[in-house]
User: Fold this.
Amino acid sequence: EVKGRKILPVDSKPEKNSFFGGNIEGIINKLDYIESLGIKCIYLTPIFWANSNDRYDCIDYKKIDPMLGDTQKFNELCENAHSRNIKIVLDIVLNHCGTDFYLFADVLKNQNKSAYKEYFYIISYPIKISISNPNYSSWWGYGNMPQFNLKNNKVTNYLFECCQYWLNEFNIDGWRIDVSSELEHNFLKQFRI
Assistant:
């Protein structure tokens, strides 16, 4: 068990909050095999700290989920993959975060006095976490994924800075943006720059 999460046997039935192991070190240990297959790119679904097993409810864009490893292991993966001419691409969601994301947590705590209330689309106060009927905009109505206000330059600058962090610190080779079809064209143009 890691951080209160139970790792289940591989043949178990998957559930939203079930985990099956697998981590960055495991990928490092298989790089010889991956290279022998002629693979030129490793695409990783979100590796950021989150509550769910799909990690699309991000808590912190600059922290690797401890179940997967740490920045030292990720750096080792990137360096070893690059030495084999294998690229690393990360998946990120820029449309929404999790309710434990520190900016949204501040809004929950301080409500309409939060310095970050304009980072999200708040319908009414007081905000209450609700999975099926939230009083804040959330991805497809799932209350555990509050939607960012991407018309706010502070939000977009923050998200772009987080993406730049991974490019600069670990020399990753690219991004796969989740639900990019739901993002405005101008936002994606800015992201590309």
Observations:
- The CA atoms of residues 16 and 53 lie 6 Å apart.
- The longest strand covers residues 58-64.
- Helices lie at 24-29, 31-36, 71-83, 102-110, 153-170, 185-192.
- The chain has a mean pLDDT of 91.
